[in-house]
Amino acid sequence: MSEKKENMSRVSKKQSEQKKSSKPTKNKKQVSKITFKKILWIALALVAAIFIGSAGLFVYYVSSAPDLTEKDITGSISSDILDDKGNVIYTLGGQKREIATEDQIPQVLKDAIISIEDQRFYEHNGIDPIRIAGAALANITGGFGSQGGSTITQQLIKLSVFSTNKADQTLKRKAQEAWLALKLERDYSKEQILTFYINKVYMSDNNYGISTASNYYYGKELNEITLPEAAMLAGLPQLPNAYNPKTNPEQAKKRRDLVLDMMVENNKLSAEEAQKTKVVPVEENLVSLTEEQSNDLVFDSYLKEVILEVEEQTKLNPHTAGLTIQTNLDMDAQKRLFDILNSDEYVNFPDQNLQAAVSMVDAKTGQLKAIGGGRNQEVRMGTNRAADMNRSIGSAMKPLSVYGPAIEYLNYSTYQQVVDEPYEYKSGGSLYNYDRKYLGPITMRKAVIDSRNPPAAKTLQEVGYADSTSFLKNLGIDPTKWNNNTGLVESNAIGGEVTPIELSAAYAAFSNGGIYTKPYTVSKVTLQDGEEIDLTPKSKQSMKDSTAYMITDILKDTVNSGSNQNLVPIQGVPQAGKTGTTNYTDEEKVKYNIPNDGVPDSWFNGYSSNYSIAVWVGYDKKFEDGNWLSTSSQQLPRKIYRSLMSYVSQSVENTDWKKPSSVVEVAVEDGSNPVKLPGPNTPIEKIVNELFIKGTQPTAISAAFGEELKAPSGLTAKYNKEKDEITVKWDKYDTANKKETVNYLLTIAGQTVETKNLSYIVQKPTEGEIEITLAVKIKDQVSSKIAVTITVPSKEEEKDSSSKDSSSESSEESSEESSIELSKPESSSESQVESEIQSSVESSSALQSSKKPAANSAN
């Protein structure tokens, strides 16, 4: 039976396998073919979807493209620049354009422009797929917008109706730009488009159009320019200011030579001719400024900041947007500053190469009123050292990075003791003072006035880099960018890179009670349709008013100390300020043959209650022969400052700074550490007045020149019932100096009288327990107090006592007195006693309005 079952099982299994094998099968090639087809169809579907989506998106973007008119292409609307009184001082854009006709444009210029900007210009219809593909390849690694694929036609569209800012290079903008370029190519010929472009491009120094630039740079008409000049002009539009041959000849030559190379590549010039042309100096044939252009240099640095500020704040092009720009420029101050820097009428400069930079800020508003970007400027929109210079400000940094934060965060007083002693940097090297001497323990005030370096470095360590950084940032200075972006280091106690504009604004906060406003040139921009854009920044409390006042008080002394007192003070103008000087290293002095007293940079920032003015003097190339500042040249910043400050202060009210309630002035004993009030024998010459944050002033009295005044003795008080009066007596106070006048401060029931006598009578005193205290006062010193208490019985008690024992009353008994023993001395601070004195009445005053004391009886 089991065998049958086993055989049947084998047969069933075989039949089952046969059924399976009878089903149709697919080989690997068939499966692979089906899979590929599916992938292909999916890919084609995705491409189609992307194409349809892109086309739809393109149509959507194009539907909102702006209209393009010939006026957009050919013209621009100028912008008016107004000074702080509303007068038009300059016009940007339109009026600086000279239009060239097609027949006035030389072929050499056309060849140069097409070679560098768009070699397939005559072949495409407004957009260049090959150029776009190349740009797209470059953008894979560089990010969108890292390289442009724009044709000359597209660039003309961009200049006419779109922004040129990199941030605006969006996909939508690119789609609209391409669409308008296609339309433009249908409406105008290639020569017309090229002519539009040549008349439209910006050529630096407020010049628009290459025809205008030809006259500005070479003093000739466009059809007269040579090959090197044409190559130079063709290369400018990409980065006009960077390739300006007057201000950046090295970069300009590189750009010109690149244009020549591209002309060779485009078969418009032979290699030999290009090489011959490259030898021509880029400065050759450049012309000087006209008289009108030279007059514009008076406010050129200020104008440069105005343009940058408008572009940054509004994203509009002030050269073409037709704006009315209200600036904060004080033209009178600007003209005087220009004359100070560019003549010998006010300051004698040692040579023409010496440079200077000046920033003048309204201390209350933060408005930039005048800017001096340099001396002997020969080009417009040139280097503005007041905004762009990267030089250390030397010791002018100390109030900003060290002592301001010490008052703000550590509650330092102006008396705070700091030690002037040898100091070694943790990174190695010694820190010296200018005189290579050390003064030992000195006050913070002294450390600032005499600009001692080790105390500043040690105080920065006490403050800490975090708090110092925070303090600086609150004043518009970012030290995190210093020292290769590592932030503050020890040496930043005595220096750091700050521009004159930043420095003047930071010091203005000291003048303005600690309120900081970011310095700004433009208050308001009005668009063509009348819309106004307010560009006034918000002010903020950058430090406590106590910090601002205490730093100012120190810097007022600094102005009137040392050589400053002969260079800075102005009659009737309260001022504060700080010098700053940088140094060459010993190695640099040897290498460049620099004398020991030679320095690279000299600074001064001074301020009144109205203005803050920062001045730098030095050489652009500080290591060239003779380019160092002598001792006399180091005085120039203060002389420049004084010349400008004295002029602008004539038309304003010059007030002194008022001490805020958060600050107290206290007479302290000089040299005491911790600080103490003067003792009874402290010499007058050892008493100094210093400022303390309220609540931190000293209360202890110094005993350095003798002990404190001891308490008086022998205080007794007796009450006479018959006369209803209290007689108070005390011992005579003995002093080492018999000639000193001793006054006694007697306080009865809270009322104080001052007397030279040794007794005092109070008639008809109030009933109940009365406290009587006595202290001694010699000059301004007050001793501790001693006290007694006495009880004056009520009248009802006296009547009861009289009725019980009237028969035994006698004349002697009627004069019986109640007495009390002397209590232990009670200490009292001088301020407490003085407070009691201020609330007292004189010896003739009553303890009560209806009860007057009798005259004092001398012992």
From TrEMBL:
Pfam families: Transgly, Transpeptidase. The keyword Transcription regulation does not apply. The chain crosses the membrane at residues 39-62. PANTHER family: BINDING PROTEIN TRANSPEPTIDASE, PUTATIVE-RELATED (PTHR32282), PENICILLIN-BINDING PROTEIN 1A (PTHR32282:SF29). In the C-terminal section; belongs to the transpeptidase family. In the N-terminal section; belongs to the glycosyltransferase 51 family. Residues 86-263 form the Glycosyl transferase family domain. This is Penicillin-binding protein 1A. Residues 810-819 have a biased composition (Acidic residues). One of its GO terms (biological process) is peptidoglycan biosynthetic process. GO terms for cellular component: outer membrane-bounded periplasmic space. Residues 357-622 form the Penicillin-binding protein transpeptidase domain.
